[in-house]
Each structure stands twice: as C-alpha cells, then as structure tokens.
Design brief:
CATH class: Alpha Beta
Strand content: 25-35%
CATH architecture: 3-Layer(aba) Sandwich
Shape: elongated
Helix content: 40-55%
Radius of gyration: 14 Å
Structural class: alpha+beta
Number of domains: 1
Largest sheet: 3 strands, mixed
Distance between the termini: 7 Å
CATH topology: Rossmann fold
Order of helices and strands: EHEEH
CATH superfamily: NAD(P)-binding Rossmann-like Domain
Number of helices: 2
Length: about 80
C-alpha cells in the first residue's frame, strides 16, 4: 500500500443497475471512472474509494457487471500496494 495513505472504502448500493441508465450513466460513467482514477483524494494522505453493491432484476446482466467490477477492484488493489 502507498505509504501513509488512509483509504476509506464507501459502500454504495446501486439498485436497478442492470437497466440502461443504471449501467451506463451511474455505474460505468460515474462510479467505475472514480474507481479507475484510484478514488477521490480528500487530503494528501486520504482517499475515498467507492465499493459498489449491485442490485438488479436480470441475473445474467448482474453477473456480467459484477465480474467487471471484481476485475477493476483487483487492479486498484495492485496499484495501491505498489510503492
């Protein structure tokens, strides 16, 4: 993990994420982009990283989205542990 950085993971329940607007606008263009950037820097030594909880009616779409989120989380963790 980066030295002297406090990371706050904030759970965000996203209902209806399998729909077009939930997937494209809210998840992919907002939450995922924040995650890809490494979160939101609050102070030089503090980060807030969203941790989405996906809720939707279509199980197949939900699984596909969840797999993508898992990959993004793994990449973020790799980034954070590098010095």
């Amino acid at each position: 993990m980066k030295k002297n950085v406090t990371i706050h993971k904030v759970g965000i329940i996203m209902n209806g994420v399998t729909g077009r607007m939930g997937t494209n606008q809210h998840l992919m263009r907002s939450i995922v982009e924040i995650m890809k950037q490494g979160g939101v820097q609050v102070t030089p030594s503090e980060l807030i990283i969203p941790d989405p909880v996906l809720v939707g009616r279509n199980e197949l779409k939900l699984q596909k989205l969840a797999n993508g989120i898992i990959l993004i989380k793994q990449l973020i963790n790799l980034y954070l542990i590098q010095d």
